[in-house]
Amino acid sequence: MLDILRGGIAVATIGLVGPPPAAAQPEPTPQAKAPTAPPGYRIVRGPLMPAPAGPLDSGGQVSCPTGTVAWGGGTAVQGVGGPTESINTSAPNGPTAWRARVNNTGVETQQFGIDAICARQPKGYAQTFAQIGNPQHTQASATATCPANTVLLSGGVLSTSDSALASVTSAFPASSTKFTAFVNNGTGVNEVLTAFAICGEPARRRHRTPRSSARAPSSCRTPSRRSAPPDPLEPAATSAPGGGL
To answer: Which pTM value belongs to this model?
Structure first.
C-alpha cells in the first residue's frame, strides 16, 4: 500500500522541479526549570516519637544544623490518622528550631514526627507574631504580619493549652506578607493563640536593557557589563520553605 501511495504522488508531481516539501517537524517542548534551593537548604526530620492516648498533648522539637535558621517546619501523625488525632502546635522555637505538639484522644498510642526546614539566614530575616485570646469552647484566629520590605517565607501556630481538646483547624499564608492561624479551644479554660510569620527580604529584580540588532562601529562601542549575580542569601529559590493546611 505504501508503494502504491508513493507511485501516485510521483505521477501527480510530474513536471515539478525537486522532491515534495518535507513534512513540518513539531517544535521541541521547552523543558521546565529544575527546582532550586537556597544555600544550606535542608529538611531536618526528627525521629518518630510516641503520642500516648490521653487528655494531654505530646510534644517535641528538632533543631537546624549549625549556620542555618528555620525557614519553616511541620508535624504529622504517622499512619492514616483520624478524628482522634490532631495538631495542637506547630511553630518556630527561636530562630533555629521547630516545635510541635499533637493530640491523641483515641485508645492506642500513636507516633508523630517533626520536620524543620532550614537554610542559611537570608537578608532581613525576622520572626513576627500576633497573639489573641482564645476563650473556652470557641474558635479564634490571629494573623502575623511581616516587617516592611520583607516577604513571607512560612508561618506557624501555637496554643497555650496542653489539653488534647485544643487543636489547630487551619493555618495558611493569607498573603505574601501575612500568615493566619485558627485554633479551636474545646476546653473549659480560656487560652491564648499565637500566629507566627517567618520573613525575609525579597530577591532583587534585575532588568536587562534590550539590545539593538544594529551593531555600532567598534570604535563607538562601550565595554559590556555583566549584571551582578543574584545574592545567594536572598529568598529567591523555588524549593518549598513552608506551606499551610
So the answer is: 0.73
